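PROTEIN DESIGN WORKSHEET
SECTION A - STRUCTURE
LENGTH: 156
TOKENS:
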């Protein structure tokens, strides 16, 4: 399980909305001065991220809690988001190139086919996202309250 602490900002039925602080490990890295990730984190800032999580423990607003997500849910979701549109784009482009042959006049059709494949991949992803949004295995879950003596960054 991947865990992150945050503050409950709203409760809606069986779900709670938890704000977590975006963190990077740039401060402890020895090459943070010349790293693109460090530069990007400075530009993006330390904004809070709001997460909808299953509230099985009955957490209330302003409770400091720990939210967890199963690793396999993160891996499957990431794989779907990043690979399916890309693979469908490449397959459509390859099929168009194969069916047209090696003529240079058909490059426009290959590009249009690649774009069509990308759009079909995004359309599939939309359906997949709607399907897993209802599946509790893919939902973040509040697993416990943090002890009162643990400090957490205030959100503004």
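SECTION B - SEQUENCE
RESIDUE ASSIGNMENT:
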């Amino acid at each position: 399980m991947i865990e992150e602490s945050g503050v409950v900002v709203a409760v809606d039925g069986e779900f709670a909305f938890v704000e977590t602080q975006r963190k990077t490990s740039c401060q402890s890295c020895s090459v943070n001065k010349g790293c693109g990730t460090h530069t990007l984190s400075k530009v993006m800032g330390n904004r809070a991220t709001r997460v909808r999580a299953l509230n099985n423990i009955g957490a209330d607003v302003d409770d400091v809690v720990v939210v967890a997500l199963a690793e396999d849910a993160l891996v499957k979701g990431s794989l779907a988001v990043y690979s399916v549109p890309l693979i469908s784009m490449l397959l459509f482009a390859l099929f168009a190139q194969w069916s047209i042959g090696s003529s240079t006049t058909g490059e426009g059709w290959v590009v249009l086919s690649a774009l069509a494949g990308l759009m079909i991949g995004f359309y599939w992803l939309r359906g997949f996202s709607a399907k897993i949004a209802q599946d509790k295995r893919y939902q973040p879950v509040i697993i416990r309250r943090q002890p009162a003596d643990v400090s957490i960054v205030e959100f503004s």
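SECTION C - NOTES
Helices lie at 36-44, 71-100, 107-133.
The chain has a mean pLDDT of 82.
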